[in-house]
Amino acid sequence: MFDELQNTLMQIVGSIAWGQWLAAGFLLLLGIVLGTLVARSAGKLAENRISRHHQVMIRRLVFYLVFIIFAMAALREVGFSLQVLLGAAGILTVAIGFASQTSASNIISGLFLVMEKPFEIGDLIEVDATVGEVVAIDLLSVKLRTRDNLYVRIPNETLIKTRVVNRSRFPIRRVDLLIGIAYAEDVERVKELLLSLAEQNTVCLEEPKPFVLVTGFGASSVDLQFSFWVVQEEFLEGRGAMMIEIKKALDEAGIEIPFPHTSVYAGSHSAPFRIQLVDPEPTQNKDRLDADQKN
Amino acid sequence: MTEQSEGQRDGVWAHRYQLASGQTQRHQLGQIRLWVTLLDMEWQVRQEPLAPDADPLTWHETVGSGMPSSDLPEQRFIRSSGDEGLVRYLPAMAPLPTVIRPYQPLTIPADGRCVLYVGNLLWMQIFLGEQQQALTEFPLATPSKTWLGANTMQGEICYASATYGRLVLEAVPIRPWRAVTPVTINNRRTKPLLLERFNLPTPLLSLHRNERGQLWTPGVVVECETDMSSASLRIEPRVTAAAGDCELIAPAREKLAKGRSLVRAFDHIFG
User: Fold this and answer.
1) Nearest CA of chain A to the CA of B99: how many Å?
2) Structurally, how many domains does chain A consist of?
3) Do B157 and A172 touch (CB under 8 A)?
4) pTM metric for this prediction
5) Which residues on B lie below 8 Å from A211 (Cβ)?
6) Shared-domain flag, residues A247 and A183
7) Which residues on chain A are in Cβ contact (under 8 Å) with B143?
8) Which residues pair with residue A155 across a beta bridge?
9) Over the stretch B9-32, which tens digit does the pLDDT of each residue have?
10) A247 in the same domain as A183
């Protein structure tokens, strides 16, 4: 029984054309190595002329092209007929298609993304609540690096379906700051002050011109919108620096930025509350106690 | 820390200054103060901005043996063996085009012509040794930026500069931190041309120095044939005769590719 099994195994092993399989394996390996080298060279060749996004696309395309040619050669070497294989692949595709609907949908979405090009590698995009820099656009997903350095994978299908905001598409951006000033302040004066701040700040672009709008009369303040334009890369820096300058300038000019006020009426507008001053004696006593404890 | 200076002189562009180890050269030029210190192993460069409304007409330079204040932010550069303490300061034009905006818009009548003298802000480049090894560069005043384009999607970021739009050469103040560019505008239209702003291709302008040490660039000629968008711009091959005999002191930052039209390079001449 054991001898029979051994003989059968020996026959199977003996009948395999090891040389062909080795040659096929070698061809596949060669395909990977050559594909990588050619793709890298193609990427470097076009490095200065095209964007990083296109460079990655070209590299990937060249690699797959070279690898497929070598894979086909390897299959021929082993003795597979490509026609039969392609026929079988047709039937298989249907089966696999049903089995992997999500992956297929992602791949097709990926193709549409590449064609539509709503963003490129290196762009800062916002998808749902995630804001990050695009680090890779792959077959199934797009990878983002968020500002706090997290790696986020977003399926291509999601990107096709959902709203995507590209924050890097245009070279300049507008900063909108909402500022509340007290009702007693002169709005015209504050407007002039804010516009002069934009003029002095070198991050603010001279054109498109900065502007100030009164957006509403709030519960505790007159609400203003101060808008100015900055170079896209200087957005955060420009906004932060301007907010500090606004606070300083309003403080220096004695203009009040009010916190929410609540007015309490005792049932009638004309009847004021009765106020009684309390002797601040307990605080003094506390100080004395602290001093006593030290002694 | 106190600085022991060896007398105040006027600074000169492209002059070979020799420093010994431990010496600091102090400059006051444009709207900055600059300290260049040579030590045994390194060069140190410190800068301090001055008031943005300052308009000095001179360049003061002193060499002393004391170190500048440690409060100033410094840049450090490792010294190469071949510099022998030689340092040169070369002027350069702005690396981006500059939008020139006259304080008061100027109207050029139909078929009229005018020459505006524009003072352009310069950048200072520091070079070391006989090999002219570049150390660093910076503007001599803080330039402001602007956007020039048909809309907020298409256009380019430029530097912005306001000008008095002087029409008489004698009225132009000659400052060592600004170079004068004569801009000729020919209005060939049948309607007057209101000049509110125009784009000067500063990276394409070379710098020349005349016998009095003043800096000039070649003139720029703008021809406006039918409408603003069809205006053509060219740079004259030589510096205007009014500047006197000039020598090339710094080449243009960018060279225009052969056969490329300047009009295409600067689509929005009049904003």
Assistant:
1) 10
2) 3
3) yes
4) 0.73
5) none
6) yes
7) 202
8) A141
9) 788 888 888 888 888 999 988 888
10) yes
- H or E element that contains A213: strand A211-217
Interchain CB contact of A241 with B (< 8 Å)? no
DSSP H helix total and E strand total for chain A: 9, 8
Does A277 reside within a domain?
Answer: no
Q: What is the CATH number of the domain that holds A211?
A: 3.30.70.100
Q: Which chain A residues touch B156 with a CB distance below 8 Å?
A: 171
The B-side interface with A (CB below 8 A) comprises 52, 99, 101, 142-148, 152-153, 155-157, 160, 271
Give yes or no: residues A179 and A248 share one domain: yes
A179 within domain boundaries = yes
Residues with Cβ < 8 Å from B125, sequence gap 6 or more? B89, B90, B91, B92, B134, B136, B137, B250
Are residue A156 and residue A177 in the same domain, yes or no?
no
Residue at a domain's end among A69, A99, A129: A99
Residues A182, A248 within the same domain: yes
Q: Is residue A1 part of a domain?
A: no
Q: Work out the pLDDT band at A197, boundaries 50, 70, 90.
A: very high
* Interchain CB distance below 8 Å, A208 and B142: no
| ipTM of the modeled complex | 0.80
Q: What pLDDT score does A1 carry?
A: 63
Q: Which two tokens stand for residue B224?
A: 């406006």
Q: What burial letters (b/e) apply to A66-92, b meaning 16+ CB within 10 Å?
A: bbeebbeebbebeeeeeeeeeeeeeee
In a domain, A106, yes or no: no
Same domain, A201 and A224: yes
pLDDT single digits (tens) A63-77: 888 888 888 888 888
d(CA B102, CA A185): 35
By CB atoms closer than 10 A (0-12, 13-18, 19+), residue B98 is buried
Enter the tokens of residue A273: 């509350």
List the single range of A263-267, B76-80, B149-153, B242-246 with lowest mean pLDDT: A263-267
Domain residue ranges in chain B: 9-90, 93-121+141-265
Instruction: Return the half-sphere exposure (C-beta side, CA atoms, 13 A cut-off) of residue A135.
Output: 13
What is the residue range of A234's domain?
Answer: 172-252
Pair (A72, A53) in one structural domain: yes
Which of B52, B156, B6 has its CA nearest to residue B94?
B156
**Angle, CA of A247, A250 and A251, to the nearest 5°:** 80
Q: Please report, for the domain that includes residue A92, its CATH number.
A: 1.10.287
Mutation pick from A205, A211, A235 vs chain B, by most beta carbons of B within 10 Å, is: A205
Determine contact: A200 vs chain B, CB below 8 A.
yes
In Å, what is the CA distance from B181 to each residue of A110, A119, B188, B198, B213? 53, 41, 22, 13, 15
Residue numbers in B near A200 (CB within 8 A): 52
Identify the CATH number of the domain in which residue A152 sits: 2.30.30.60
